Structures are given as C-alpha cells and as structure tokens.
Request: fold
Amino acid sequence: MSDLRAELVGAGGVAIPRYRMLLPPGWQGYDVDMETERELVAAARERLAGAGRPDLAGRLGAQVGDALRSLRSQNAFAYAFAGESSPTWALGAASLVGIKRVASPEVPLDAIVEDAIRNRGAAALGEDHRIVRWTESSPVVLDGVRAVSFLVHYLIAIPGSRRTQAVQWTATVAHAEDLAEDDPVLQAWTALFDHHIATFTWSVR
Reply:
C-alpha cells in the first residue's frame, strides 16, 4: 500500500465495534463529534484568513455545524473526504460517510438487502459476500447549479448482532447533469470506493 493511504480506525461515539479501513490516497477521516466540529471550523477560519476572506468564516462555520449535526442525527459515526495532498483527479465534490443502521420489526436488515438486490441492482462485493453494494443517483442543486448526486452504498452486518445491526458506508460524488451513468469517470470512482471498502475489517483484540 502507498504511504499516502490513511487508515481509518473506528472508535467513535456511536456504539459499533472497532474497525479498520484504508482510505484513498490523501483522504482524511474524521469523527462527527463536537470536538471535530470545532477543529474543522478553526482550520477553515485559518485558511480563509490566509486567503484574505475572513468575512466568510461565519457562514462556513455555520455550514460545517449544520452538516455535522445532520450526520449525527442520522446515526453517523465517521466521514472522510479528499484532502489537499490528494492527487488532483481526486479533488472534487466527493465524500464518504459511515452510519450505523439498526433493524426494526417493520424494516429488518434482510428486507433492506433483498430490496436492494431486487430493485436497485445490488450485488455482493468480493467472494465472501460480507459486503453488499448498490448505487443510485438523484438531482441536486449546488451553489445554484443543477447537478446530479451519485451515491454508492455498502452494507456490512455487525458481528454478533444476529443481523439486526449493520454499518452502511455511502460514497457521494457530485457531477454534471450531462454525465452518463456509465461514464468512465463514475466507473473509476466506483472502482476506487470498492477497493477501499473491501479493506474494511473488524478489529479483534
């Protein structure tokens, strides 16, 4: 593995077992707690001050706070995105979020998997079939510009939960409206995330 590849080690506030997963080159992983929120806002203020735009710090801080609160409300435990040291091709509107999913009598995890396979083209990732992956696209508006949000979902059952709990990683890539679903750019992103999600392992002490 390249020295640039970061390793995401799970030990956050949402109760899931510890895990390890390699991130793409130059990507940075974060918890979604209040400490992370303060660190990101402080770093953004410093960058904006260096760029001569301290006036934008307040608005950006509010956006960061809103985004992290939204993630926490969804039971998210981690997220990652390309840092400044990433290769230029990887810099863009892409992110990776991990959330914990808990089954209910109305929506068991097996039903979620069956629906994804039957209606969303889901398939197992790897020969051990421990990861189920599916994709979807939806229209979005970014800074007043119409675009498309391409999502790649990965579902991994939490061991010992009797298939009542799972980790779901969702990779999001924003792209222009006229980009075809089978465009090589999107295929490359999917292959990249497939490769790194496949490194996900539960840590055993």
User: Anything to note?
Assistant: The first strand starts at residue 5 and ends at 10. The chain has one domain: 5-202.
